[in-house]
Amino acid sequence: MQSREMGLMHFVAALLLFCAGADAVINLKYGINEEMKPGSVIGNVTKDALKQGFQIAPQPPYLRVISNSEPRWVELSPAGILTTQMKIDRDVVCRQNPKCIISLEVMSNSMEICVIKVEIEDLNDNAPRFPTSRIDIEISENASPGTRFPLEGASDPDSGVFGVQSYSITPNELFGLEIKTRGDGSKIAELVVQKSLDRETQSHYAYEISAEDGGDPPKIGAVQLNIKVIDSNDNNPVFDEPVYTVNVMENSPINTLVIDLNATDPDEGTNGEVTYSFNSYVTEKTRDAFKIDSKTGIITVNSVLDYETTQIYEIDVQAKDLGPNSIPAHCKVTVNVMDTNDNPPVISLLSLNTEMVEVSENAQRGYVIALVRVSDKDSGANGKVQCRLQGNVPFRLQEYESFSTILVDGRLDREQKDTYNLTIQAEDSGVPPLRATKSLVVKVADENDNPPHFLKPHYQEMVMENNLPGSCLLAVSAEDPDLGMNGTVSYSIVPGEIKHMDVNTYVSINPSGRIYSMRSFDHEYTRTFDFKVLARDNGNPSLSSNATVRIVVLDVNDNTPVMTNPPLVNGTAEVSIPRNAGVGYMVTQVKADDYDEGENGRLTYTISEGDRAFFEIDQVNGEVRSTRMFGENAKSTYEITVVARDHGKPSLSASAYIVVYLSPDLNAQEPIGPVNLSLIFIIALGSIAAILFVTMIFVAVKCKRDNKEIRTYNCRVAEYSYGSQKKSSKKKKLSKNDIRLVPRDVEETDKMNVTENYSIDSSYVNSRAHLIKRPPCSTSTFKDLEGNSLKDSGHEESDQTDSEHDVQRGHYVDTAVNDVLNMTVPPNVCQLPDQDPSEGFHCQDECRILGHSDRCWMPRVPVPARAKSPEHGRNVIALSIEATTVDLPHYEDGTAKRTFATFGKDGPEDAERAELKGKRTQESQVCSPKANGGAVREAGNGREAASPITSPVHLKSPVSKPSSAYNTLKCRDAERIANHSLLRQPEGKDSEPAVREINTLLHDGRDKESPSSKRLKDIVL
């Protein structure tokens, strides 16, 4: 019974695995026939499992059996070959079960489960067989047709179709057979009376009953049936019901009432007394479970009923009276055993070890460590079980109905925790629920997952120099929390070099981590050196780490000072000093070197022996100086011993024997102190800085002077752009509002305060001029210049925002005035030389072939350069000059306001200018011009001041010399000037003195040698 239950449990578990499709479980199914010889191969489990992706270890044992329902019949070899153990008789193993399956569960090293099912096929190797060879039965002659008499059936160990399928009776004249199927699937036969019986005719009948199975060919079993006809008994017992059905709870106590049967017989006496009994073909199992009272017909429980073993019992009961020739009555009682929650869940662990499981600490999430099978013999809710893991552990339970797997569900670290006690709890759904627990110990196996760890990443050790080779310097230590060989640490020196030599020539290390010196260290050669120590475990693969070790070699006073100055010969040095050397005269400087450092290398100089009264020494720098004068009677040789001593412990020293000679030929010199290089360096830097500063000032002054000259040129370019339309690609108009002149006190200037410049296309004239003070250039503004720069930059038009354009605005008037004052006027020259009007001041012969450049139009640089007045940048010059050349343009009439911006800009339509032009061609010279003037605009309110200028002076040729302009001035028609000047009246009172002075100079200009003429020349020059 137990083996049958286990087989059913394994079958259910395998079915659940197949349905659930767990990733960690695969299913293999094999089929064999019964009666196979021992050792017959059922299948190659290893090969078949690999085809389904099963993970199997590369070396045996590939699989391990964790459960086997029939270990007597089949076995699995270490190589994974499934074979039979002995000859299998299915009729013994599974009896009449329709399915005969042997189940095995095997596990790989990767904790994967393989469920193997071996189905044993039935053979028709057994014929039906009756319990006895003859059946005797008595029937009353009063038995009516249709009366039934149960017969003991035949049994066939074969299952299914190979079992008993039918019965037959031979011959079948008076009696026949009716086939019935019981609850367990077996078939029984009942004898049925077909015709009336007559004892007087025939009292005995002999028949043969045959039982046939479903084989091909079928097998038959037979039994002899003997029927005896007896005298009739008037009445037979009769049951209240032919069939009864009752329910009995399992685990009911013994003698529990099942049913109280009742059969009645109307006869009196013994003929009416009824007895009860089980039919002859009631099985022994039923007879053991129940008993019947023969007198009362009460059926009671005779043994413990187990629903999980047998759920249904069928009991055939007969009742007959005690009279002669009694005919029994039959009824059928069906007993249903009712389930109760009397079975707690049963937990079975399927693992390599049912009590302890070992898992690697590197196991990933989802790794299966055990298979759990939970069963409950109860049915319904009583048998429905839920399973769970107790506690907070890095594992989880993957549950399927009554089958579960335990999986890794977190990171495992053996170094933190190496053992887990898992408690599995299963609980059914009965009322009250029943529980079961199972413990499982999980050991975390070590993996080499931790490299050695040094206690300190850096080690430093102080070692005195001159140490003994082989002495222990220090010890390093590294820990590895892994177990066994994974945690065994060995040490080595990382290959490297120290001072171009192998590190192993300096230090060595033993397996325990102690570091030894391989040589004697010298502080003066190697003060510190570093190397790395490697710690490696013995795992596979091994892990390692390293630490840095620094050895500091401490200094020892092992070096004696060495004298380096003065040079010694056999420990003696000779020096000479003049005999008349004064006190403090430096005789020599003693120097010594000590290769030690710190106090061991710090030296102190002393005079230990000799003529110590005549000399002293600086203890720090070693300078030996005289302490007294040497007279004429002093001896010629002095001797001292100088000692250089370090401050080590013990102290070391060196000495020098110095012989000092007094020489009469040497001149005494003042004591020379030590040269301070820092002071010399500072003085040199200061000198260089001063030179650079002076140079910068000079360059700045030079640039400022050149800048003023460039501004003069720009202003002349602007004037030229108004005076000559032939040389300009675009006309530039300058309105009278572009120049604002501020009247100031009139100052007479000499030639040292005059700005030099030349006009581009006008004849220059010299005249006495007055300077009018004006505000700085920033207050003078040019207006409406069409946004053009007055400087020829080579870019044609310039925007008003150009800095050059803005700079030139304040200097236009300076340029116009300086052009006149910088001329030299030679006498008696009235004829101008002819020249191409397109040529400029700097034109050369190449210009006629290659063309002109900007340089041609630039004004001549004045030579020599004249000093400029401090007020030069703020002065405006008003001129009273009139030219008499043939093509000189003339100012407009006096009714129009004139400014410097209109100087030389009159058009040919002016009638007055035409009239003057005609008269100038006839008249030769002017002797006394009258003082009248033009106008000068005030900067503040725009009023125009009277000016003696009646017309601009234009040179016929730009290269005409200033002397021609001066001669032209002498030839001017004074009367014409006077008449024309009367048309304009002075409006500014600051201009009247200037007009009077200029007219006076013009009047005196006839005489070349007159003082006035000289004064004008001085002003011009």
Q: What can you see in these coordinates?
A:
The protein is an alpha+beta fold and 1021 residues long. It folds into six domains: 2-121, Cadherins (Immunoglobulin-like), CATH 2.60.40; 134-338, Immunoglobulin-like, CATH 2.60.40; 346-445, Cadherins (Immunoglobulin-like); 453-554, Cadherins (Immunoglobulin-like); 562-672, Immunoglobulin-like, CATH 2.60.40; 700-1020, no CATH class. The protein is 16% helix and 31% strand. The chain is built from 14 helices and 56 strands. The chain has a four-stranded mixed beta sheet, with helices on both faces. It has a four-stranded mixed beta sheet with strand order 8-14-13-10, with no helix packed on it. Strands 16-23-22-19 form a four-stranded mixed beta sheet, with no helix packed on it. Helix 5 (677-723) packs across helix 7 (812-821) and helix 13 crosses helix 14 (1011-1020). Mean pLDDT is 72; it is low at 1-23, 668-675, 712-838 and 861-989.
List low-pLDDT spans: 1-23, 668-675, 712-838, 861-989
Distance between the termini: 151 Å
Instruction: Please count the helical segments.
Output: 14
Structural class label: alpha+beta
| Rg computed from alpha carbons, rounded to a whole number of angstroms | 72 Å
Tell me about the largest β-sheet: 4 strands, mixed
Strand order of the largest sheet: 1-7-6-3
What is the overall pLDDT average? 72
Question: What level of helicity do the residues show?
Answer: 10-25%
Number of domains: 6
List the helices and strands and how they pair.
Elements lengths: L1 H19 L4 E9 L7 E4 H7 L12 E5 L5 E3 L4 E4 L5 H4 L7 E7 L5 E9 L12 E7 L7 E3 L13 E7 L4 E7 L5 E7 L10 E10 L6 E11 L7 E2 L3 E7 L7 E4 L2 E2 L9 E5 L5 H6 E3 L5 E4 L10 E10 L7 E10 L7 E5 L5 E5 L7 E8 L9 E6 L4 E6 L2 E6 L10 E10 L6 E11 L7 E2 L3 E7 L7 E4 L2 E2 L9 E5 L3 E2 L2 E2 L4 E3 L4 E4 L10 E10 L6 E11 L7 E4 L6 E7 L7 E4 L1 E3 L9 E8 L4 E3 L5 E4 L10 E10 L6 E11 L13 H47 L22 E2 L22 E4 L29 H6 L3 H10 L23 H6 L3 H4 L17 E4 L32 H10 L14 E3 L6 E3 L15 H9 L3 H8 L10 H13 L6 H10 L1
Parallel strand pairs: 1-7, 8-14, 16-23, 25-31, 33-42, 44-51
Antiparallel strand pairs: 2-5, 3-6, 4-5, 6-7, 9-12, 10-13, 11-12, 13-14, 15-18, 17-21, 19-22, 20-21, 22-23, 24-26, 26-29, 27-30, 28-29, 30-31, 32-35, 34-40, 36-41, 37-38, 39-40, 41-42, 43-46, 45-49, 47-50, 48-49, 50-51, 52-53, 53-54, 55-56
GO cellular component, one term: plasma membrane
Keywords: Calcium, Cell adhesion, Cell membrane, Disulfide bond, Glycoprotein, Membrane, Metal-binding, Repeat, Signal, Transmembrane, Transmembrane helix
Protein name: Protocadherin-19
